[in-house]
Known about the structure:
Elements: H1 29-55, H2 69-86, H3 99-109, H4 117-137, H5 145-160, H6 164-177, H7 182-193, H8 197-208, H9 217-231, H10 236-289, E1 296-298, E2 307-309, E3 315-316, H11 318-326, E4 334-335, H12 338-352, E5 377-379, H13 380-384, E6 390-391, H14 394-399, H15 401-412, E7 421-423
Antiparallel strand pairs: 1-2, 3-4, 5-6, 5-7
Amino acid sequence: MTSLELQIRSHGGPPGRFASSGPRYPLTLDQRIRQGEQFRHSKAQLEATLQSIKNFQPHGSHSGQPNCERCAQKKDQIRAAYREYYLSSDPDAWSSNLPKYRAAMTEKFNNPNGYSLAEVHALFLSSFREYLKQDLCKPLEKDTPQIFSLKSATAHQFDSGRPTADILSDYATAIENLAPNPDAAEFASAINNSRSQEERAHIYMNYYCRPAWADSPQQKAFKVKYARMFEALVPHDEVLAAMKKEAADSHASKIDVLQREISELQMAQSAHSKAKAKKEEKHERMNLDREPSPKMVQCSLDGCANEVNLLGDTIECAICEWLHRKGGERGRYVYCSVEHADEDFDEHDRHEHACCMGNRCIYYPQTGPPGDTDAVGICEDCEKEEFFSLFCSEDCFHHNLDEHRGIYHESRRIPSMSDTLDLFQPADDMEIIS
């Protein structure tokens, strides 16, 4: 969905509903559409009212004198019709939040010495053209050089007195021609020619929510959700804001996962370097003390130089041993004593058993369900591809399954076949010490 600046139709009028502090230019698409429709309705209503006054004969006799009651009544009706047209009370009227214009126009209508229709219309036209100029020609940082040039040229046309309808018609055509792609050009043209909310809803659905063969399940659900909102005639600006927020949140989530993967890679590299240094240190020490044994490893508690014989009874992390048996590359974490295992537990659990969903985990910032540190499991689809996505619990896995597939499966082209976890199972000969 490419950002596209949409302008008022040449047959329409100005744009939308404002805050009390005054118009904020440029106006949104919904504002322009609402005010364009109100402007056309107001003009049609004026024409109909004037025709009705012309056809209807007021009560009273026509004396032909300056104080003729019948003529005065007719003039009052005409004045009221024009007052409503130039000073519409509709909140979607183009002048609804232009206090200076409304004060000046009210002063003319209230002038006891009378006024000419030409004076009133001149005030309306000059204010209306300035309003359009501010909306259509306000420069933005995101403007391309072509759009900036178009706005400058359009502002010059307003200043030089070119007819308003010609300016708007050429501006709309230029916007379509400068659209970044054919879909955007078609969208601009369709909106400019639309006449009803229902018609525009289908235009929005076709532009923002059109299905594509390559859509992921997450993208399909996204488009269906917002297509229903458009179909329910929820305002365009409201739907688009919600779409942008959800897309931004999803992007942020993917960034979080990528940052976590980078962090895990850095930790793995650091652990590898540390293990390599320990191994070299141990090798030198073993060369001095005794013949090296391939079954002797150093205690996993940082700073402990004690060695552990893997051939004897060992104290180790059951989850890491399980992952190691599965083919994971994290390795086993063994300790020289129960005290050292307990001392290292919190730090080890936080770094090595963290849920793959990061801050999307339903138990975040905890590492999993309170008091249940062995409820972990691996996504079966990822495991088949020798990629180990560790979840803190089945509840978190089911809650985040769609997002997990969108982030991990799509990027690694992993087929989404299973909706169950391969749950942690300690070795048969292992005794769990809580």
